[in-house]
TrEMBL record:
Enzyme class per UniProt: oxidoreductase
EC number, UniProt record: 1.1.1.88
Matching Pfam families: HMG-CoA_red
This protein's name: 3-hydroxy-3-methylglutaryl coenzyme A reductase
Keywords on record: NAD, Oxidoreductase
Gene Ontology terms describing biological process: coenzyme A metabolic process
Length: 429
């Protein structure tokens, strides 16, 4: 894609956007046909995805625009029901773009598997024996999934921990074997679980214990992606607020979240506002990404901010977000869900590592959008104006009524369903 700057996209009709994106060759006529069809995910396909299917549930799909990441342009598909998220991400991406864009990095895609062993006659000895067999165990894990090795991945490391070794309760004493495997472009849950199950009998034999759980950990601390942006204060200036005031407000807001779990929870929810929609649109497991992100935010013993905001020696605002990112470009439902397939095409990423970097970037952008609004006008001004259309629809407005009523709600500064119902009644008279 040449650029993700598409001025005026916001004001186009859906049909105009469809024609524009087709002319930009972001998707073909045929792909546009099913994206814009009534049933983009056929019930028959859905019935093969999960159990007890009775239909499908749709979410709006929007495009986060203006993203420049490591010098490459991205239009980012976002599946979300909440107004203002896509607008805010695109607004911040435009602002950061003017400052040179985002820079990102990522570790190898190394996921973690856990094997729980209980009832060992001697836990310390069992630990030593397992560690001595590390290479053989890694080989056994790789034999359970040889295709990964061919792709340059596979099991790479193993650690052992004893939990509650001094406890008098036999239920709480356990040996935990952690193994780490590079799952390449797959999220890796099934791959890791297959490896864990294949190692279990060998580990039982080595430890003289009994294996109960053998499963992926959703906190993949060795599968991290990081995004960074540096913004000069001039770029942050808004009506009534100098760039320095906005910058300082953002840093104060961050410090609040860094020190207070009650604020951190909301702060991080805002970050996930950007992350989840991309994870969902790309057919990935958003529960896994959510769980990993929150575990990471509590890794030092206190739940805290996922992002870090500071001022550099030139007075620029510097933002960073590093999170575990268990996403894939293959596997799971990614190649099954037609819209997820199209989302990958629109995103144009070559690997799961690249996808992970795009996703943390949008989380960082979303966080800045929220902090910038909070540090200036407050969140409600922009959010409620965009929310007004949903309020109008909830009150029964249809067709041209939606715009008229949403406009009246904004003008009268009363964006509530009760007020919208009164206006719908008035319109019908
Ligand atoms: P899959 O089981 O679909 O495995 C990915 C498959 O993709 C591999 O079998 C591999 O097959 C193939 N593949 C093709 N190209 C590549 C490549 N470049 N890199 C890696 N693999 C490639 O998916 P995952 O193991 O990723 O599991 C993800 C699913 O598991 C998600 O749906 C998730 O919801 C679910 N899940 C999540 C759990 C959790 O989070 N705790 C627990 C259990 C399941 P081959 O090598 O044969 O070509």
């Amino acid at each position: 894609m040449e650029t993700s700057r598409i001025p005026g996209f916001y004001n186009m009709t859906v049909e105009e956007r469809r024609h524009l994106l087709t002319s930009m060759e972001i998707f073909t006529d045929e792909e546009a046909e099913y994206l814009f069809s009534k049933e983009p995910l056929a019930t028959e396909t859905a019935d093969n995805m999960i159990e007890n299917v009775i239909g499908t549930f749709q979410l709006p799909l929007g495009l986060g625009l203006n993203f420049l990441i490591n010098g490459k342009d991205y239009c980012i598909p976002m599946a979300i029901e909440e107004p203002s998220v896509v607008a805010s991400a695109s607004h911040i991406a435009k602002l950061v773009r003017s400052a040179g864009g985002f820079t990102t990095s990522a570790t190898d895609r190394v996921m973690t598997g856990q094997i729980q062993v209980v009832g060992c006659p001697n836990f310390s000895e069992a630990k030593e024996i397992v560690l001595k067999q590390k290479e053989a165990l890694l080989e056994a894990a790789n034999n359970a999934y040889p295709s990964l090795l061919n792709r340059g991945g596979g099991a790479v490391d193993l650690e052992v921990r004893i939990l509650n070794g001094e406890s008098r309760s036999k239920y709480s004493q356990m040996l935990i074997v952690h193994f780490y495997a590079n799952t390449c472009d797959a999220m890796g849950a099934n791959i890791i679980n297959t490896m864990a199950e294949s190692l279990a009998p060998v580990i039982e034999e080595l430890t003289n214990g009994k294996v109960y759980l053998r499963i992926l950990s959703n906190y993949p601390e060795r599968c991290l992606a990081k995004a960074r942006c540096v913004i000069p204060p001039e770029a942050l200036q808004t009506d009534g607020f100098s760039g320095e005031e906005v910058r300082d407000g953002v840093i104060h807001a961050y410090e609040f979240a860094a020190s207070d779990p009650y604020r951190a929870c909301t702060h991080n929810k805002g970050i996930m506002n950007g992350i989840d929609p991309v994870v969902i649109a790309t057919g990935n497991d958003w529960r896994a990404v959510e769980a990993g992100a929150h575990a990471h935010a509590a890794r030092h013993g206190m739940y805290t901010s996922m992002t870090v905001w500071s001022k550099d020696e030139h007075g620029n605002l510097v933002g960073e977000l590093e999170l575990p990112m268990s996403v894939g470009t293959v596997g799971g439902s990614i190649r099954v869900h037609p819209i997820a397939k199209l989302a990958h095409k629109i995103l144009n990423v070559d690997s799961a590592q690249e996808l992970a970097q795009v996703i943390v970037t949008i989380g960082l952008a979303q966080n800045l959008g929220a902090l910038k609004a909070l540090a200036t006008d407050g969140i409600q001004k922009g959010h409620m104006a965009l929310h007004s259309r949903s309020v109008a629809i909830a009150a029964g407005a249809t067709g041209e009524m939606i715009d008229m009523i949403s406009q009246r709600l904004i003008e009268e500064k009363e964006i509530r369903v009760g007020k919208a119902k009164e206006l719908v009644e008035e319109y019908k008279k």
